[in-house]
Design goal:
There is one protein chain. About 80% of the residues lie in helices and about 0% in strands. It is mainly α. The protein has a domain of about 55 residues. The chain is elongated and about 125 Å long. The protein starts with a helix and ends in a 14-residue tail after the last helix.
Length: about 110
């Protein structure tokens, strides 16, 4: 394999890129972490926490409305059932008052 000027130029550019990347990595290791990053992270976390809390409140509010609607529906159904039962009892009392009631004949128990 011959070392042509094009190959040597490409190798030199590659070496500069690799050395630059290693130098940049080493420089970031030596730097002290800045305190501002923690403050910015705390503020960002606070905004995220506030948004999440608002979402939870909105969901709980929708659940409360749904439960109220369900309770109202059940109450209406129970009131309707009570009215129906009272009407049946009233009709039954009217029937008992209007005439003698016949008792069904009882059958003797069957022996096996």
């Amino acid at each position: 394999m011959e070392l042509t000027p094009e190959l040597l130029g490409t190798a030199a550019v590659g070496a500069v890129v690799v050395v630059g990347a290693i130098g940049n990595y080493l420089r970031t290791l030596r730097e002290r972490p800045r305190g501002l990053d923690a403050v910015v992270a705390g503020v960002g976390f606070g905004f995220g926490d506030k948004e999440q809390t608002e979402r939870v409140i909105a969901v709980l509010d929708r659940c409360a409305r749904a439960l109220e609607a369900l309770a109202d529906k059940r109450t209406d159904e129970m009131e309707e059932m009570h009215k129906t039962l009272l009407d049946r009892l009233d009709r039954r009392e009217e029937q008992e008052e209007s005439g003698p009631r016949r008792h069904p004949q009882r059958r003797p128990p069957q022996r096996r």
